[in-house]
Amino acid sequence: MKKRTPIFPAYEQESRLICFGGWMMPVRFSSIKAEHEAVRTRAGLFDVSHMGEIEVSGSDALLFLQQLTSNDLSQCRVGQAQYSLLCTEKGTTIDDLLIYRVEKQRFLLVVNAANIEKDFAWLQTHQSGDVKLVNKSEEIAMLALQGPYAASILQPHLKLDVNDIKPFHFVCDVPLFNIKVILSRTGYTGEDGFELYCPADQGIHLWKKLLQIGREQGLVPCGLGARDTLRLEAGLPLYGNELSNTITPIEAGLSFAVKTEKNAFIGKDALVKQKQAGPARRLVGIEMIGRGIPRTGYPVYCNEQEIGFVTSGTQSPTTQKRIGFALIDQEYAQIKQRIEIEIRRNRIEAIVVPRPFYKRNQKNGEVVK
Amino acid sequence: MEFPQELRYTKEHEWVKIEDNQVRIGITDFAQDELGDIVFVELPEVGQEIKANTSFGNVESVKTVSELYAPIDGKVVAVNEELDGSPENINDSPYEEGWMIIVEPNNVNDVEELLTAEQYKEVIEV
Predict the structure, then answer these.
(1) Which residues pair with A44 in a beta bridge?
(2) What does the annotation say about its assembly with partners (chain B) (predicted)?
(3) B60 touches chain A (CB under 8 A)
(4) Which of B9, B14, B10, B1 is nearest to B68 (CA)?
């Protein structure tokens, strides 16, 4: 039996469902293109309650997480969120995650749905000192309100000024429709927006109310299909595609979240070596020149030699270009390098391009009036 | 969802329309709806032979790639070039502007073996 989020009954009848990471999730409500466009130009609401939440607390919580994650959590203040990675000794990736610093020694780790059990077990294996671990995934519903109108949709219903919540910051216990939510200015779409966390049993109420208050400004419910095309355009990695237990964050171009100058953490030695020597392969943005759409797993060639594979690809709904990510030998990983993608036994011309494929113009922190 | 009576259908969700001694082929309303926004079509060249139940091309939506299966044996005599620039025609008009190829069948009677609209509806349970 596939798992369902607490929001499931609200959209069961009005969306097309797919199985994702063991969950029955909506892939689209209307069309992926329409939902994608709504998020780029107005606003979209996503149920992302399948994501996991693990609470780490205790007087050694910071020390513990510093030893397990690659980013420097001491640089993250209370009320801030930090993108980080859990790595193996070899430096390959167990998961990528967002760490919320709720209190000085209390953190909420938001992890990928398919990795909840694996991550929790990994944390337990290394648990030491005064550290308490609680898997709160079942207790918490998570919604993502994304798009240029997200702030102006929320503002009339909040006592606080949303512009005081800067990107990668959050506020706990924010009253919204008589629900206490964690309001976080984060997302996975390349747009301004918020992620909201609330008790699981109130998630469906929050979902319905948000759709209701946003309707006038063009807010629509969105599925995982649009979430994928949005994150791809924004150049954001997806665990299982751009990251995996065989891919390191250095290879995936996430060096900004690997702080090799901080004290020992699992995977540090391997990652330091790789950073110094330069990784043998690197994740690049690709754009098709010839006819075809790059898709996960397609081989990449240059001069008759296989040099890697496509990790994700689609036709960009914003630019119509056929874009993707590929993990290729580093000697070919420079911008403007011509490569070929093998699509159904034909090699089609493509080019290495900078990431992200899309960058928004609008400044964060301004309510659109 | 519509399934015109005058067309014949396959389990792989293609439709076939007899036009004199040729047949026009496309994918059904059900198929386009399942796929979602179609963004790319790969079709055979004019003159190419197609063989029943084997792939003659591909159709790609934002998210997925699906093969197109030939309903009958025959030779391609026309290809809908419009779909190259406007693949969304398949979503908007699967039985008209969204047609894919016209084929000269080796045996026009093969079409009689295909599903009727009623039979196809049973296959997709609508």
Answers:
(1) A146, A220
(2) The glycine cleavage system is composed of four proteins: P, T, L and H.
(3) yes
(4) B14
Low-confidence ranges of chain B (pLDDT < 70): none
**pLDDT tens string A138-171:** 999 999 999 999 999 999 999 999 999 999 999 9
Q: How far apart are CA B69 and CA B58, in angstroms?
A: 9
Separation of alpha carbons A243 and A221, rounded Å: 28
Give A361's contacts (C-beta < 8 A, 6+ positions apart).
none
A228, closest residue in chain B (CA to CA): B63
Q: Which pTM does this prediction carry? A: 0.95
Chain B: residue nearest A321 by CA? B39
Averaged pLDDT for residues A190-195: 98
Please tell me whether residues A39 and A142 are part of one structural domain: yes
Does residue B16 form part of some domain? yes
In chain A, what residues touch B40 (CB-CB under 8 Å)? 292-293, 315, 322
Q: Is A287 annotated as a binding residue?
A: no
B39 touches chain A (CB under 8 A): yes
What are A15-26's pLDDT values in tens digits?
999 999 899 999
Interface predicted TM-score (ipTM): 0.91
Judging contacts by C-beta atoms under 8 Å, the chain A residues touching residue B63 are: 27, 32, 225, 228, 314
Among the listed residues B56, B52, B57, B73, the one whose alpha carbon sits nearest the alpha carbon of residue B10:
B52
Question: Is there a contact between A344 and B58 if contact means CB atoms under 8 Å apart?
Answer: yes
Assess contact for B115 and B23: CB atoms under 8 A: no
Residue-range definition of the domain harbouring residue A349: 280-360
Residues in chain A within 8 Å Cβ distance of B44: none
Structural domains counted in chain A: 2
- Smallest CA–CA distance, residue B5 to chain A, in Å, is 27
In a domain, A102, yes or no: no
